[in-house]
Amino acid sequence: MSNHRESTIENMSLQEEKPKRIGMHLSTAGGVFTAAGRAQAMGANTFQIFSSSPRMWRPAKLSADHCDQMKKLRVEYDCEPLVIHASYLINLCSQSEDVRRNSIAAFRGEVERALALGAEYLVLHPGSWKGLSREQGLELAAESIQGAIARVPWQSCNFRILIENTAGAEFSLGGSFDQVGELILRLESVAPVGVCLDTCHTHVAGYDLVSAEGYEPTIAQIAAVIGLDNIKVWHMNDAKAPRGSKLDRHEHIGEGTIGLEPFRRILNDDRFSHCAFIAETPVDEEGDQERDLLALKSLAARKVPV
User: Fold this and answer.
1) Is residue 275 part of a domain?
2) 17 lies in a domain?
3) Where along the chain is Zn(2+) 2 bound (predicted)?
4) I need a labelling partner for 151 at 20 to 30 A (CA). Which of 40, 107, 134, 161 fits?
5) Rounded Cα gap, residues 299 and 281, in angstroms
6) Over the stretch 72-106, which tens digit does the pLDDT of each residue have?
7) If pLDDT is split at 50, 70 and 90, which confidence band does 10 have?
8) Does the annotation mark 274 as catalytic?
9) What distance in Å separates the CA atoms of residue 237 and residue 258, rounded to the nearest whole number?
10) Is 25 a catalytic residue?
């Protein structure tokens, strides 16, 4: 009994000491694997990349050597998870059959590249249902994702597609927690899915992460319609625009309308201890990414407001 208790305490201690995973969206200039070195150099232990140009339909071809180097470097640097962000062009609930067909093919390519790189997560904006009903948009998005992953051997991999909430623009699927939750429900039996929450998107969509009084009701709503265990990644972005504006404009940590305290609160919320925290803040000057990363790491180490 004593040995069991000591083992349990030791395991709990190891879990408590497990470092928070905090990183940035990084460039892949010079080869996709170079992002791992950039993460290591700036002190990040997780990172996000594009596996191909986010604004071109024609995909990049990844060499097997570059994929192997990425896997090797991530092990060497203890850098996980690897998060890939899907192309901005993909619209899996478009009313246009041509756009939807191209989007399905492009998303399938995203999944294949993610698996080749050994990525744990692939973040997706489902798209716009303009010209359709909300219900039709949800149905098309779910069908398109299922079609894109058909016959792709993801089952044996530690891999999930993460639906990201959006800034709440009209017709943008994922602009509310309800829509994200509904899409997860439609997909969970046929695809490896989870959720990525963006602080800027959440804020400008009208949810309150900023005030101490509003934070808990917001988290309770996330828990009710999405499930906290489904949240795998937080995109940690301050916002240039005010709450409820529906304008997706990212700002440096602590310099926007969200401010520092909400980031400290999220980073130190035990309900999100399983998550990776990745910033997609602007690069206006040399050293901006390092400064934003340091801000997040400092807030994660600070348990009480200052």
Assistant:
1) yes
2) no
3) 164, 198, 235, 280
4) 134
5) 16
6) 999 999 999 999 999 999 999 999 999 999 999 99
7) very low
8) no
9) 9
10) no
C-alpha radius of gyration, the chain, whole number: 19
Confirm whether 68 is a catalytic residue.
Answer: no
Of 201, 243, 252, 264, which is the active-site residue? 201
Q: How many domains does the chain have?
A: 1
Residue 47 lies in a domain: yes
Query: Of 46 and 152, which is predicted with more confidence?
Result: 46
285 is catalytic: no
The overall pTM is greater than 0.85 = yes
Q: Domain range for residue 36?
A: 22-290
Hey, is 118 helix, strand or coil? coil
Q: Which residue in the list 55, 151, 213, 285 is annotated as catalytic?
A: 55
HSE-CB for 12 with a 13 A CA cutoff: 6
Residue ranges of the annotated binding site for Zn(2+) are: 85, 125, 164, 198, 201, 235, 248, 250, 280
Q: Are 257 and 238 in contact (CB under 8 A)?
A: yes
Structure tokens at 80: 């996980």
Is 80 one of the annotated active-site residues of the chain? no
Q: What angle do CA 184, 189, 195 make, to 5 degrees?
A: 25
Helix residue ranges per DSSP H, 153-211 = 177-187, 199-204
Reading the block at residue 253, the tokens are 């940590």
Domain of 62, CATH number, reads 3.20.20.150
Phi, psi for 163 (deg, rounded to 5): -80, 125
In degrees rounded to 5, what are phi and psi of residue 272? -115, 20
pLDDT at residue 159 above 70? yes
What does the block give as tokens for 263?
Answer: 């980031």
- Among residues 139, 280, 288, 290, the one annotated as catalytic is 280
Question: Tokens 């894109």 label which residue?
Answer: 148
Assess if residue 82 is contained within a domain.
yes
Q: Residues 205, 177: contact at Cβ < 8 Å?
A: no
143 catalytically annotated: no
